[in-house]
């Protein structure tokens, strides 16, 4: 992890404030292009519900799976009023961050990745919020930026999640052919590079600058959004060098 537990908690609140700014004055019934089953309101309720879910996990010191239906108030405010939704989002983020801060980074709690500590959840909620903020920004046409350390850590975390999921889905969704490789290269952040090698038993990755079957280059926030399928790979300012089919297959196979 790039950030400390307390910094993730602060970033969680900040990312939620940025998300709320994208929603301010927007048509909450608008469809989110990168999550076409959702409206902007649905997206906001998903994010706020996730904050309340994690708040509940941490405050109750849960060591077994917690279902959303068992969490108080994850379905949004009682009113359709935009101001009520904004206040509900702000409250959920603050309460989640507060619970995480009070628990500290090392408390053992349940997570869908198995044994975990509260630092898993502070990191996960930061990036959950940041990526869904990209969905909202894209819907309303707002600029999208992220601090370089947050964006780089989001990529690290996403590769960890893919590793975990692939342990259960190898035969269902192979990421590519053994011997193929991908290189992610941020052009605006020093040392923000990733080299991914596909093998017979999955894949490995490391921070490195090496020649690959395909390379994805561009500003770090854009590389993150392409890799998370929040931005098309042919977006101006982003380059795909080498075999684009390798990148397409990876992105398709990781759209969990």
From TrEMBL:
Pfam families: MDMPI_C, MDMPI_N
Residue ranges annotated for the Mycothiol-dependent maleylpyruvate isomerase metal-binding domain, each copy included: 10-137
InterPro entries named in the record: DinB/YfiT-like, Maleyloyr_isom, MDMPI_C-term_domain, MDMPI_metal-binding
MDMPI C-terminal domain: residues covered: 149-249
Superkingdom of the organism of origin: Bacteria
Positions in coiled-coil regions: none
Protein name per the record: Maleylpyruvate isomerase family mycothiol-dependent enzyme
Organism name: Streptomyces xanthochromogenes
Higher taxonomy: Bacteria, Bacillati, Actinomycetota, Actinomycetes, Kitasatosporales
